[in-house]
From TrEMBL:
Domain of life: Eukaryota
An annotated GO cellular component: nucleus
Domain C2 residue range list: 1-126, 133-258
The family this protein is said to belong to: Belongs to the copine family.
Species the sequence originates in: Octopus sinensis
Record protein name field: Copine-3
Pfam families assigned: C2, Copine
Subcellular location: Cell junction, Focal adhesion; Cell membrane; Cytoplasm; Nucleus
Subunit composition and interactions: Monomer. Interacts with ERBB2 (preferentially with the tyrosine phosphorylated form); this interaction occurs at the cell membrane and is increased in a growth factor heregulin-dependent manner. Interacts with SHC1; this interaction may mediate the binding of CPNE3 with ERBB2. Interacts with RACK1.
Length: 543
């Protein structure tokens, strides 16, 4: 929230949700379809979307080569929040037509793009059109991010001997930064906080991408306006100056960049209204989510399921936990949709699955944190389908109860995130945790849940809440930081926004991919913001 009215607060630099990647391919020991020479291979990349395979691109053809290393990379967009199924088909091209249907098929390979970017180069046997592997033919596929390096500029400003614009007291100055548009107009890109009653203010350091600050043009002018804040929004200008990023980059501990703060009315006389001083400037490369994933950061995925009585008797077809013989219920669909995406980024593919709000056999005591496979020493399920199997077995043995207390499960995952944080000094950006919490109603322990989320907000952890059913989920929007920083009744504030809430009913008529896109869209930015706050670069870049 802005520290002063009528001046919007600045959001941190947005992390791009999509990344451009290049797919590179080489093959070994391809089948020879030519009689008098060797095969002339070409590889085509297909993406499964809209219930069909669509060609994204293809490599060059290499003549007479059974071990081709294709030089042409195939570019495509990568989205973390989507399970992008891809297929590579290799053909022996013996004609000049653009279609590949009339060329000899040499084999294919399928995976998700997530598996490719998280697992590094994949080497697999090519399979024939019936899915049977060839004995000797192999394909190696790799992906790398293609992006202009995002420069992050961190700036520290102060001022001296500013004009006093207030009759009673001293000026309350703040700075406003603008970049110049192509038509000569100015676009505000940042405002500092207000320093009250001070003619020699020092503002908090802030950061912007170089693109936001000056569109990446280090020679472009950046206008700095200095205002005296007024509560009614009619801020009085004290003066202004201009700098370029090139000039800014000269600022360091032994060299300050000083500019006279001159009111436009006094420009001809060059009468100063004080000095604006840049005393520190740091330019660094902003790593992307893909940088971390490709360097080995592991995404640890945990599922938490609401087994409270408000879901309804599982034997009743109207229950949210009813197991239909032919189709998954909403809980299962949400687990499958989100879990299939996260599965590609978890190296061991074993996922803890927890429940809350039920009475467990044999004593039928109420538990607010239990393993749905009934093995508290090893709550891990093999793959997302293993989670679904454990869920179906669990629902048949427990008694739904209550209340809806979710803080224990949040703290359970936070405990492991805390342990990972303590190992960052030696292991770096090695692990990040995602908790998918599925619930059908109003959280009973809201105050404790807020405290648990605030505690977790300083850890390598994100919380995704999916509301199942038609209950009133109004309070969930309070947990989601979209409306401001989450704050507890005791006054503690979240270090960062780690919560994303969506009601499942909004996606009943949509595909499972659409649900995954919406609940996971913020995760890449949350991962990057956490590791940056800890000054942790991707593992491979650490020295």
């Amino acid at each position: 929230m802005s520290l002063y009215p009528n001046v919007p607060a600045q959001a941190p630099p947005a992390q791009e949700c999509a990344s451009q990647v290049e797919i590179r391919i080489h093959c070994k020991d391809l089948m020879n379809k030519d009689v008098t020479s060797k095969s002339d291979p070409c590889a085509a990349l297909y993406l499964f979307e809209g219930a069909k395979w669509s060609e994204i691109g293809r490599t060059e053809k290499i003549n007479n080569n059974l071990n081709p290393q294709f030089s042409t990379a195939i570019g495509m967009k990568y989205y973390f929040e989507t399970a992008q199924k891809i297929k590579i088909c290799v053909y022996d091209v013996d004609n000049a037509t653009s279609t590949l249907d009339d060329d000899d098929f040499l084999g294919s390979f399928e995976c998700t793009l997530g598996q490719l970017v998280s697992g590094g180069p994949l080497t697999k046997k090519l399979v024939n059109q019936k899915g049977k592997p060839y004995e000797k033919s192999f394909i190696t596929v790799s992906a790398e991010e293609v992006t202009e390096k995002t420069e992050l500029v961190q700036l520290s400003f102060k001022a001296k001997k500013l004009d006093d614009k207030d009759f009673f007291g001293k000026s309350d100055p703040f700075l406003e930064f603008s970049r110049q548009n192509s038509d000569g107009s100015w676009q505000v890109v940042h405002r500092t906080e207000v320093v009250k009653n001070n003619l020699n203010p020092t503002w908090k350091k802030f950061e912007l991408t170089s693109h936001a600050l000056c569109k990446g043009n280090k020679q472009a002018p950046i206008r700095i306006n200095c205002y005296d804040w007024d509560s009614d929004g009619s801020h009085d200008m004290i003066g202004c100056c201009e700098m370029t990023l090139t000039e800014m980059m000269k600022a360091n501990s032994s060299n300050e960049v000083v500019k006279l703060c001159i009111h436009p009315k006094n420009a001809a006389k060059k009468k100063s209204s004080g000095s604006i001083i840049l005393y520190a400037c740091k330019v660094s490369i902003l790593p992307s989510f893909l940088n971390y994933i490709m360097a080995g950061t592991n995404i640890n995925f945990t599922v938490g399921v609401d087994f409270t009585g408000s879901n309804g008797d599982p034997n009743d077809v109207n229950s949210l936990h009813y197991i239909h013989p032919e189709r998954p219920n909403d809980y299962m669909q949400a687990i499958l949709s989100v879990g299939q995406v996260c599965e590609d980024y978890d190296t061991d593919k074993f996922f803890p699955a927890l429940g809350f709000g039920a009475k467990l056999p044999p004593t039928f005591e109420v538990f607010h944190e239990f393993a749905i496979n009934f093995n508290p020493q090893n709550p891990f399920c093999e793959g997302i389908h293993g989670v679904l199997t454990a869920y179906q077995n669990c629902i048949r043995q427990i008694q739904l109860w209550g209340p809806t207390n979710v803080a224990p499960i949040i703290r359970h995952v936070a405990k492991f995130a805390f342990a990972a944080q303590n190992e960052e000094a030696t292991k770096g950006a090695a692990a990040y945790f995602i908790l998918l919490l599925l619930t059908d109603g109003v959280i009973t322990d809201m105050n404790d849940t807020v405290e648990a989320i605030i505690e977790a907000s300083s850890l390598p952890m994100s919380l995704i809440i999916v509301g199942i059913g038609n209950a009133d989920f109004t309070n969930m929007n309070f947990l989601d930081g979209d409306e401001g920083v989450l704050k507890s009744k005791s006054g503690k504030k979240a270090h960062r926004d780690i919560v994303q809430f969506v009601p499942f009913r909004s996606f009943v008529r949509s595909s499972s991919a659409e649900l995954a896109r919406n609940v996971l869209a913020e995760v890449p930015g949350q991962v990057v913001s956490y590791f940056r706050s800890r000054n942790l670069m991707p593992i491979e870049k650490q020295t």
